[in-house]
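## tool: complex_structure
## caller: assistant
## args:
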Amino acid sequence: MPRWLDDRESRVWRAYLALHTELHAVLERELAADSGLSLADYALLVPLSESPGGVVRARDLAVSVGWERSRLSHHLTRMQGRGLVVRETCPEDARGSMVRITPEGMATITAAAPSHVATVRRTFIDPLTEADLTALDDIYSRLRAALVEESEL
Amino acid sequence: MPRWLDDRESRVWRAYLALHTELHAVLERELAADSGLSLADYALLVPLSESPGGVVRARDLAVSVGWERSRLSHHLTRMQGRGLVVRETCPEDARGSMVRITPEGMATITAAAPSHVATVRRTFIDPLTEADLTALDDIYSRLRAALVEESEL
DNA sequence: CGACTTATGATGACACATCAACAAACTGCC
DNA sequence: GGCAGTTTGTTGATGTGTCATCATAAGTCG
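## result:
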């Protein structure tokens, strides 16, 4: 016998779902039109471009974007085909695989970032007040902590 | 020359992205294990099951879940193949297509809902305080309003 | 050392999402 | 009525995500 969601809870939950659907669509479209990248491409290129040397071990990359290894492997295969990244052998662990961003990949995300950030600002950050940002910072970290517990059961 | 995200803005944005990735994965997995439904199936079955008669016009269904028509059409084809819904002709508009939830579809979502709601509660609603809910209710409606403006440009 | 377990990453099959193109039918204006 | 433009829904191609499975290599412990 579950406790149902009351009106406000249900409204917040459905608003969250709808918000994500719409936000995702807008960002995906803008990024693709502007640079030919998908949000998934962008998500991978960010940690790669921020890493010193532009090289990250696949395992660590999976952790930093929160993906399953299979998804990462498939996506890297496609990105490698487009010349955005290359795979190299891992010196410390023969099972491992190092992922390196190519100069072309770096140029692509460098060119894409300003417009993408502007869209994030326009659609997400700018409508928020200082108090909203403070509240979300707290709320999101609490929710993520709850999810970590969840997965540790 | 874009205005970059400061530390807190960036943290909130990345937390939002990571939260969604994790939350989506947990809910998808739980729902699939429990009932064989995907979140997409569930999203469609909710408005169908809530509609009097269990029939909704495809166009309206697309609006209420925020999907493109193509996605809806493909997904309905698969759901119809699994016996969750059927398509019927639309009496008022010969182009149209009415979507009807089957008794099996109704039974499936009825069985799935309690456990799914419990997971939503555990991972999203319960970690929030009353003040959080009030804040999110306000923030999400403001963000969605901003997105509507965005798409009207 | 040697058997067992775990970690890492790749792969094939399948479900899903997006895009462009299409056919059919409604709308409105002349 | 008739034509232009729009709306509705479907389809096929292609890119993407998930699952189960696999091969290889590390780690663990007798």
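## assistant note: The mean pLDDT of chain B is 93. The first helix of chain B runs from residue 7 to 35. Handing back to user.
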